[in-house]
Amino acid sequence: MPAMKSAFQTVALIGKYMNPETREQILSLARFLGERHIGVFIEEKTAQHSSIKGYTTLQMNAIGAYADLAIVLGGDGTMLTVARALVDYKIPLVGVNRGRFGFLTDINSDHMLESVAAILDGMFDTEQRILLEACIVREGRTVAQGYALNDVVVNKNGLARLIELEIHIDGHFVQRQRSDGLIVATPTGTTAYSLSAGGPILYPTLDAIALVPICPHTLSNRPIAISSASQVSIQVVHAEDASVHLDGQMKMALQPGDHVQVKRAKNTITLLHPPGHNHYDVLREKLHWG
Fold first, then answer.
1. For a surface tag, which of 24, 41, 75, 235 has the fewest beta carbons within 10 Å of its beta carbon?
2. Mind telling me which GO cellular component terms the entry cites (predicted)?
């Protein structure tokens, strides 16, 4: 019987750097794809750090233009990096879990080839995830900009005192708070830092954003969920040492008077899951709900 035509003709492989086990998995997956006559690209830094040769390499920003599918081998942190880099492209992402938690990378590495084979044969569930776009506005001028799949966090650094923030939503004043900071989380990010700070868990495909204060001085400052179409402005009223973090991976220093403007990014990312994927099963397993 002839092999089923693959749903994807070219696949890019992106792995967590400096991990010998990841290197062997990438090579195993590359050989597997080659046997199915699928074009294979290795992300340039992945190939360099893992000493992989013999395959065509692509810079991260070129993957969206040349590959039909990207397979990410690592933990959720690796997936966050890839999602931000490829947000302007419509390339779907598949995550193979090499980390400890894995809300985003949900294919078990022990069953990697079987799961990838099913996806190549068109057997997968598709899910759209929103991202946030954050801009720092200083004296009327945008001085920095970036994307976040999990969260945008404005917080104090080290042992600095509480910072004072003023929050507006869609131009309407909401509150002024003294706290360790504020988390603006996508539904994806509500199982990350937001969860640790007492925020709600939002279903990943909800058109919503969660605002979660970090250790507020006044306990009436509670987490709230708002429409993802809303625009949030966070003004740094007073802070000795504050910064904004995107997905906990990108950091930018803030000054008193700065505004951090957060809105839903224009594009979404597409995650492909094995057939039968269920978010409640993931929550039950990862959060040990029993």
1. 24
2. cytoplasm
Q: Is 233 flagged in the annotation as binding? A: no
Q: Active site includes 106?
A: no
For the chain, list residues with pLDDT below 50: 1-2
Q: Which of 76, 106, 247, 258 is catalytic?
A: 76
Token look-up 């906990």 returns 248
Give which of 116, 58, 115 is closest to 89, Cα–Cα: 58
Look-up: residue for tokens 């029993």? 290
Cα distances (angstroms) measured from residue 38 to each of 5, 69, 116, 227, 255: 10, 11, 12, 41, 50
Check whether 106 is labelled as a binding-site residue.
no
Q: Nearest to residue 132, comparing CAs of 50, 202, 187, 172?
A: 187
Token digits of residue 191 = 């199982």
pTM of this prediction? 0.93
89 belongs to an annotated ligand binding site: no
As beta bridge partners, residue 30 has none
- What phi and psi values does residue 40 have, to the nearest 5 degrees? -120, 130
Q: Which domains, and CATH codes, for the chain? A: 10-124+274-286 (3.40.50.10330), 131-266 (2.60.200.30)
Nearest alpha carbon to residue 121 among 3, 13, 39: 3
Burial (0-12, 13-18, 19+ Cβ within 10 Å), 55 = middle
CB 182 within 8 A of CB 212: yes
Residue 238 has a CB neighbour count (10 Å cut-off) of 14
Contacts of residue 105, Cβ cutoff 8 Å, sequence gap at least 6: 72, 73, 74, 75, 76, 78, 79, 95, 96, 97, 98, 99
- For residue 80, the surrounding DSSP H or E stretch is helix 76-85
210 is in an annotated binding site: no
